[in-house]
Amino acid sequence: MARYGVRRIFLDRGVMGDPVAEGILSESGEIPVVLVNGPQEVARRLSTFEDPLGEGKHSLLITRQRGDFVKGCPGTHNHICCRYQIINLVVNCPIDCSYCILQGYLNNPAITIYINIEELFAQVEEKLSGDPGRVFRLGTGELGDSLAFDGMTRFSTALVPFFAEKANVIFELKTKTDEVDNLLDLDHRGKTVISWSVNPEKLIAEEERSASTLEERLVAAEKCQQEGYPIGLHFDPLIYYPEWERDYRGVIEKIFERIDGKGIIWISLGGFRFPPYLKPIIRNRFPASKILWGELFPGNDGKFRYLKSLRVEMYRKIVGWLRDYEPNLFIYLCMESQEVWEKVFGWSPKNNGALDHLFAQRVRSFSSACDRFSILSLDRK
Questions:
Q1: What is the reported pLDDT for 378?
Q2: Three-class secondary structure assignment of 78-121
Q3: Strand arrangement, sheet containing 8-12
Q4: What is the four-CA torsion angle of 36, 42, 48, 52, rounded to 10 degrees?
Q5: Could you tell me the fold of the domain covering 64-373?
Q6: What is the pairing mode between strands 85-87 and 70-72?
Q7: Less packed terminus of the chain by CB within 10 Å, N or C?
Q8: CA-to-CA distance for 125 and 327, rounded, in angstroms?
Q9: By three-state DSSP, how is residue 177 classified?
């Protein structure tokens, strides 16, 4: 909490007295609580600040989710998508990354915590039972860090045991923090993956305000692996700069000093990309950032990206460095075309469903190959 400098908590009047809301407030210490009539009032209040996005990083809203908790990843047109299912339990993030798409994506800058977790569980149950032969991959961390406020919400202590009992799903918590204390004594049965976004320390210091250092993340990953959790890693976004090869190779060296490669269930690679509307936001909020200095061009999906040849070069080298340590790693590309897949790996999934099937195979093989990272049998087909 202290790391993120929370200045105020907005409490939706509609959840006053709710046990989950009261539990969160009891962990909040002396932070002032302001009663509001829903998210729109919070957005109006924050809009009066010079930097509403920045102020939102220091503001929590406790409210109820009135829509769907679980949504499919929107993907990108003409690019391979892995059919990941996103759980939106906490939306927005106290970590202030210069490249974060949420700066222009959300209509409320406050960090929003939804307390109706039982409704989330009901929605998940319905989704899983609707297609019992499919191995679903569900996770938080797309619209907000999974663990940044777990010390306050303790959501992980409900989520991990819930998913431990489900047969046709694997659950992922994505983070840039080292907030793992609540995870270490849970009976996860290998059904929860703890994943970290990783970058060189230089980029973390310059572009990821309030995030844990790389060393802190890897120490936390080591703790989780010692407790039997499968580990995920996300090199996303990969950012090009003159020393990128030296620095990313150093990241990989540090990873395998801490983590047993056989306990890594998957690794993603994704080049820096952003929609056009994000460029002026980055320039305004992060005037010292150098991430826009590279040669970035609009792609088929309208997002600005590095040239295809540069992306392929970066992916190939990182794949090679990773497999020097562990040849059988499951590595995939995030939001890339079949052509890029083929240039990097020599093959490509035919479509989104084919990649989803490869993930299901990976979950099953990981389960059977790693006794100490064992997963409940998912083979329902």
A1: 35
A2: CCECCCCEEECCEECCCCEECCCHHHHCCCCCCEEEECCHHHHH
A3: 33-36, 8-12, 59-63, 111-114, 90-91
A4: 150
A5: pyruvate-formate lyase- activating enzyme (3.80.30)
A6: antiparallel
A7: C
A8: 36
A9: coil
What 3-state class would DSSP assign to 20?
helix
Q: Where exactly are the structural domains of the chain?
A: 64-373
For 79-137, write each residue's pLDDT tens digit.
Answer: 888 788 999 999 999 999 999 999 988 889 999 999 999 999 999 999 999 999 999 99
Q: Helix or strand or coil: residue 124?
A: helix
180 token code pair: 């793992």
Question: Is 160 in contact with 186 (CB distance < 8 Å)?
Answer: yes
pLDDT (tens digit per residue) in 179-214: 999 999 999 999 999 999 999 999 999 999 999 999
Positions in the chain whose pLDDT score sits under 50: 371-381
The residue type found at 68 is: D
Closest of 282, 322, 276, 330 to residue 299, by C-alpha: 276
Task: List the structure tokens of 218.
Answer: 């890897």
CB 94 within 8 A of CB 2: no
pLDDT score recorded for residue 352: 87
